[in-house]
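Example S7 (structure tokens).
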């Protein structure tokens, strides 16, 4: 009798939690996942088919990444985010250990000048820096939300502790080096500190430190030659005409060739000709620009806007500061990474090698993005509880 009662309560709890999810947020994410799968297939089918390999190779792996990410997202919603605070040191510690493991010879793999991946059996790779975004957001949220009831803003000590939580992973990521991820994390950290009510001088100071830190990283050689050429090509595409300059030039041509309505899915001459390197990952938006045109690309931007607005709504309605800061951190991460990736493909931002959330091919990025959505849904579901 007691077992039956327990089972019924558990089923009711699961149904209640599912009803608490934001359907508009879920719908926008699902739409982007479907569009992303089609674009990844469009970017790789002709290329792999011409090599005599399985044209659906990347598509199958991409779908597998999505399914794993959905499981991780749902798992993130199971534990009440308010209880997650107790596990914050563990989550943060696991993130740091992953970043340390990457730097160990024989464990970390170097791709495009950055030692940022850990190779796994079956040809899979994990990028700990992507998952570290989650641990940093949760860690900072915990520190900045643990204040006395008679204080409306964090103390200087609170802000310093929050920066320390972010600084250690950032330094480890700089050693890889991976400037793109550092930029995204920095944007999230500054946004969270600003929203927490910290004095404005902290925000201004952090922006100046980030700017000076970027110049210092270049001067002391923490930025690899490959990444440095990418930054130089942003200013002058003729600096590296055979590599990053070529990639930027072809990216612009591909997006512009789509016109208003595009050439049609799977019918892009530039995409099928493989003119844009890394098109299924960092430059996936060029496929949308060419084959879906301005209208199709606008739909993608609108879906991202829906996700950001729903996330802001969840943050605003959150009943506690911890949940609000977690949501703000995730939103800032998605917003800046989307802006950076799309701006990069159009030549409006420097090439930093960051994927487009929910759309680009890549397991670690997909896992982290969907875990972030899981956190938003977690906060939303408990607003009604």
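Recovered sequence:
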């Amino acid at each position: 009798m007691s077992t039956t009662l327990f089972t019924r309560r558990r089923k009711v709890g699961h149904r209640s939690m599912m009803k608490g999810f934001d359907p508009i947020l879920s719908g926008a994410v699902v739409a982007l996942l479907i569009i992303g799968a089609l674009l990844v297939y469009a970017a790789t089918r002709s290329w792999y088919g011409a090599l005599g390999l399985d044209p659906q190779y990347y598509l199958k792996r991409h779908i597998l990444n999505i399914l794993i990410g959905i499981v991780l997202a749902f798992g993130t919603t199971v534990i009440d985010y308010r209880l997650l605070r107790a596990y914050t040191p563990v989550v943060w510690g696991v993130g740091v250990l992953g970043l340390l493991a990457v730097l160990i010879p024989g464990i970390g793999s170097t791709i495009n000048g950055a030692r940022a991946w850990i190779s796994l059996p079956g040809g899979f790779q994990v990028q700990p820096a992507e998952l570290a975004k989650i641990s940093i957001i949760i860690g900072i949220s915990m520190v900045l939300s643990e204040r006395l009831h008679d204080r409306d803003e964090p103390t200087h000590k609170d802000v310093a502790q929050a920066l320390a939580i972010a600084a250690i992973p950032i330094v480890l990521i700089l050693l890889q080096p991976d400037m793109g991820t550092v930029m995204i994390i920095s944007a999230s950290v500054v946004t969270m500190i600003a929203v927490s009510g910290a004095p404005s001088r902290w925000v201004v100071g952090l922006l100046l430190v980030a700017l000076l830190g970027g110049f210092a990283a270049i001067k002391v050689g923490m930025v690899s030659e490959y990444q440095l050429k990418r930054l130089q090509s942003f200013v002058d595409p003729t600096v590296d005409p055979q590599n990053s300059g070529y990639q930027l030039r072809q990216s612009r041509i591909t997006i512009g060739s789509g016109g208003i309505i595009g050439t049609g899915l799977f019918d892009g001459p530039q995409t099928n000709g493989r003119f844009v390197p890394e098109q299924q990952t960092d430059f996936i938006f060029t496929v949308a620009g060419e084959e879906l045109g301005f209208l199709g690309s606008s739909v993608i931007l609108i879906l991202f806007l829906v996700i950001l607005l729903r996330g802001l709504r969840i943050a605003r309605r959150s009943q506690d500061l911890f949940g609000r800061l977690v949501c703000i951190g995730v939103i800032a991460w998605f917003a800046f990474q989307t802006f950076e990736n799309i701006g990069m493909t159009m030549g409006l931002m420097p090439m930093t090698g960051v994927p487009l959330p929910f759309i680009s091919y890549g397991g670690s990025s997909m896992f982290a993005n969907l875990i972030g959505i899981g956190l938003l849904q977690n906060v939303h579901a408990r607003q009604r509880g």
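Notes on this example. Residues 30-382 form one domain.
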